[in-house]
Structure formats: C-alpha cells, structure tokens
Design brief:
mainly beta; 6 helices; disordered N terminus; 2 domains; elongated; single chain; Beta-galactosidase, Chain A, domain 5; Immunoglobulin-like; ten-stranded antiparallel beta sheet
Length: about 550
C-alpha cells in the first residue's frame, strides 16, 4: 500500500471517527451534573467580520504555507483510541448550554487520530460589531485519568474539533432531556464535518475542499480548518452560525456555515478560496462515504451481513433536468468517473435502502443520512466526479463525490461558491419519475445451459413515480445503451411481491470481442414516448467469467 493510501486511510478512518465520537457522547452521558457553572478561559477581544476573514485568507495565500509549531509528537501519539475515549469534556464548561439558544457547544481533545491543534473563538457583539475571543485549552476542561498522557500537553494546546449537542424530547429514554447525550453536528479532522439526518444517525461526511483526490502521480492534499468562530445562537432559534479559516499547501479559504436543525439538518455554505499553486483536481462541495458491498454482488463470503454501506448510490439532477442514478462500486482498482454538466441543479450520495433486514446490523446502516448538494447561483461548466477506492472492510471511507470546475485551477485564482447541504433521509427534491432501488448482477445466459464467457446478467429494480400510475395491463419498455457491446434477453416484469408500481428490467450485457476497457451502461423505462423512470448508469469493469 502506498504512503498516500496509508495517509488517506488514517485521516478517513471511518471506524475511528465514529467510535471516538460515540465514546465522547457516552462519556457526556456519564458525566456528573455540576453544582456550579464553569467558564472557559479566553484570550483578549479582537474585532471580527466576514469581510475581514476573507481578507485574512487572501493575505495568507500570498505567503508560503507553514504549519503551526507542533505539539510534542510523542505525547500526541500516546493518546491512542483507548486513551482518547477516556477524555471527557466536562459539561459545566459547555458553551451556550444555559443561554437562550437550543444547543450546547463542546469540544474534542487532541490525540493520535486528530493531532493538529485547532483554535476556537467565541463571538461577542459590542455596539453592533462582532469581537472574537479565543477559547484557551486547559486540561481542567476534560475529565481524564491521573496517568493520562494528555496531562503532559501545555496550556493553550488547542482542540481537535467541536460539536453541537441537543436534548431530544419524546425519545422515551430516561435521559431524553439531557443535551449531553445527543450530537447533531460535529467538525473533526482536516476539513471534515458531519451531521445527523432525520433518523438521528451519523454516516457519511462532507468537507471543505478536496485537493487532487486519486490523481496519478500526485499525493492527495488535506487542507485544515485551523480556526473556528461561533456566533451565540439567537433566542428560540434552531440555527447556528460558524465561521472557519482553511489553510493548506495549495489553498486558503474563508467559510461561513449557517446550520439549521429541524427534522433533519441543512447547512448554507459560503466559501471564498484562494489558490497558492496549481491543482489538478479541485473538488468543491466534496462528500465522502463508505461503500463495501450491497445487493449488487453481495459479500461473496467476506462477511455475514447482506449489505454494508453508508451510501449506495450517486444521484444527479443535471442542468438540463435529467435525473440520473449511479450505483456505487467497490472496484478492484481506484476509478474516477466524470459526469459533465453546466449549472447543475444538485447531486448527492444517497442511502436509499432503508430496510433493516438488508443489513442485519445493530449499528443501523439503514438509518444513515443521505447528503444532497444544492448549488446556489450559477456554477457554470464543470463535472460531478465520483472517485471509488477499493476497500476490504467497513472502517474506511472509500467514496468521494465532488464538483470540479471545467476551467483549470491555477495559482493566484480566486473562487467564490455557495451551496446548501441537506442531511436527510431522502432526496429533498423527489422527482415524479420512478427511482432505482436495487441493482443485481450475476452470470449471463440461462439456467441449465452452458454460461457464455464474459456475459453479465442485470436485474435493475424501479418503483414509485410514474410506474405507480401505469394503467393495468400496460408494460414499461426498457431502453438500453452502451458505447460498445450489445444487449440480449431484454424484458421488464413486475417484481412478484404484490407492491404496485414495482418493476424490474432484466437484460444480458454481451461485451464486444476483445473488449478490455470498462463500459458505461445506461437504462431507463418508458411507455411510448413518455419517460417513466430516472436514468440508471452503471460502470462495468471487465471481470473473469
């Protein structure tokens, strides 16, 4: 495994991120209720504004990139998974917990998996002007064992990240009113952040920017959110505002997040980016998820569960209005797929399969949120790019989806971007068309006969939308296309489960003689000239028969 792969897998360690966040949440639940409120130490007040932050990012881009003086590496390395799990932020130091807002702000400790210090600031309004005061790290903010290596860190060391927490009434739990037991958003590691969806589960991540993901000959870069600023929530508001400064060898940036907690979570993101040097693949509004296997080809004996994934497909709504669905793959080698577009209406990594029986896992993959990117304004020409990286376990985030502008990303360039993130249980803009719910692949040909070499049989299921409104006796027609090869044994039939509007298209794909390249397959259902379904896309790599 290359150094780049090792670094990516360390940063994107799905199990570590989830488990550490869960440990911190459970630690909060066990923390004793304080008798008196604590107060975090703060630095001196300094004027703050969005325009000032943008200017700071621009000025930073004109200077050589340098990392802040590092903390004792040997100490940080000793704060491993187990040690980190014992570091519990004390509830009496949580910000905004007793104020008029609905949320409490708490912090993650530094450690082996998250070694870079991040500076946190709280905003205070004075005469209609925001002033920022840095929150100064102190070991007293955390419950920690007497022998914890964290005690060797100096005052002011910084934090690894933060989260907003809430109380949830009506859950039936004894601690339903205790905000310490429930996260709804967290920023932790590089420029990564997560939110729960309508089903109250973490799953996939977003990040501020993606630099040179899976570019041959280049090492992927992970810029950091080095500073955060927090506005106090307004009275009765379900909304919080957070600002961030991004810094990396190739880019700097100013970010503003307006985050709304309702049934699910939405985030209005505004960013201004400044390039220090050329970037081969500049990934904007990037999403990162985990896909090991699904019903498409199953576990093939690697695991007992029927499916394991945080997301099962990429959904796209093009600028021309076409709705596309691309099931995810776990390829034998890293693949990059490009979907060219102009002024896209949206894209996202979706978890469509919500049936527990399809996972059989107590971590509840069926509750993981879907994440949809809604562009604000005209994004111009570019492409949604999907990166699929091989994995042999569920602990690695191996899927990246992002928007890549068509214009080359050059040193000195400035970019502004606005978009809304929807952390939901379903797409926020559901089409009238039927949607794909399952893709199944097997050997082509017919049972009881010699199976032809290299031929694949597909069963693609669609349901809802226009299919549910088909008159009795009317049968949809599968429409198939591919750049090479041909199709055989093509037909559509109702799925024999008694559910109205649930159909599947079956076909064999026969590759061209001597075909060695991957091929993209396209399928949709129609009745006459009327389109009934979204367009299904699938990238089929040559596989041994």
């Amino acid at each position: 495994m290359s150094q780049q792969q090792l670094r990516r897998r360390t940063l994107l360690n799905h199990g570590a991120w989830t488990a550490l966040a869960a440990l911190a949440a459970s630690a909060g639940a066990r923390a004793s209720t304080p008798t008196a409120a604590g107060a975090m130490r703060m630095g001196p007040a300094q004027a703050f504004s969005w325009d000032g932050l943008v200017q700071r990012a621009q000025q930073l881009a004109g200077q050589p990139h340098k990392r802040e003086a590092t903390l004792p590496a040997a100490v940080i390395e000793r704060i491993d998974y187990d040690q980190h799990g014992r570091l519990r932020f004390k509830s009496e130091y949580a910000l905004f917990r007793d104020g008029p807002g609905a949320f409490a702000l708490t912090f993650f400790h530094l450690g082996r998996f998250f070694p870079t210090p991040v500076h946190m600031h709280v905003l205070q309004q004075q005469q209609k002007q925001w002033h920022a005061r840095e929150l100064l790290y102190d070991a007293d903010y955390f419950q920690m064992p007497p022998d914890s290596p964290a005690r060797e860190l100096p005052d002011g060391a910084g934090f690894a990240g933060f989260r907003f927490q809430e109380s949830r009434q009506g859950s039936g739990a004894a601690d339903a009113l205790d905000w310490r037991t429930h996260d709804w958003v967290a920023f932790l590691g590089a420029s990564y952040f997560r939110a729960i969806g309508a089903l109250n589960q973490y799953g996939l991540s977003a990040r501020g920017i993606a630099i040179d993901v899976a570019v041959p000959g280049r090492e992927e870069e992970f810029p950091l959110f080095t500073h955060f600023w927090f506005e106090p929530p307004a009275e009765g508001s379900r909304r919080v505002t957070v600002y961030a400064l991004l810094d990396g060898p190739s880019v700097t940036g100013a970010f503003r997040f307006h985050m709304q907690r309702d049934k699910a979570v939405t985030m209005d993101v505004e960013q201004r980016l400044f390039l220090r040097r050329d970037v081969a693949r500049l990934g904007l509004a990037p999403l990162t998820s985990m896909y090991w296997y699904s019903e498409t080809q199953g576990a093939r004996g690697a695991d007992w569960r029927p499916e394991v994934h945080d997301s099962d497909g990429l959904a796209l709504w093009t600028g021309g209005g076409e709705r596309l669905w691309r099931p995810l793959n776990n390829p034998a080698a890293t693949r990059a797929s490009q979907f060219n577009d102009r002024s896209p209406k949206g894209f996202g990594l979706m978890q469509r399969d919500r049936d527990f029986n399809h996972y059989q896992d107590g971590v509840h993959y069926e509750r993981r949120p879907s994440l949809w990117v809604e562009p604000v304004g005209d994004w111009g020409e570019g492409s949604v790019q999907l990166i699929e990286i091989p994995t042999d376990d569920e602990i690695h985030d191996n899927i990246v989806a992002c928007w890549v502008p068509a214009a080359p990303a050059r040193r000195g360039q400035q970019l502004g971007l606005r978009y809304r993130l929807h952390w939901v249980d379903d797409e926020p803009f559901v089409p009238l068309l039927a949607r794909c719910g399952a893709t199944r692949v097997g050997r082509g040909g017919q049972p009881g006969t010699p199976r032809p070499q290299g031929v694949h049989k597909f069963m693609v299921e669609f349901s809802g939308g226009e299919l549910a409104r088909l008159p009795f006796g009317v049968k949809p027609e599968p429409v198939l296309s591919a750049a090479s090869g041909r199709f055989g044994d093509v037909f559509a039939e109702p799925v024999p489960n008694g559910v109205a509007g649930h159909w599947r298209a079956q076909f064999d794909y026969i590759p061209a003689e001597g075909q060695t390249e991957a091929v993209d397959l396209r399928l949709y259902l129609r009745e006459g000239r009327r389109t009934l379904s979204e367009t299904w896309l699938y990238q089929l790599a040559p596989m041994p028969a």
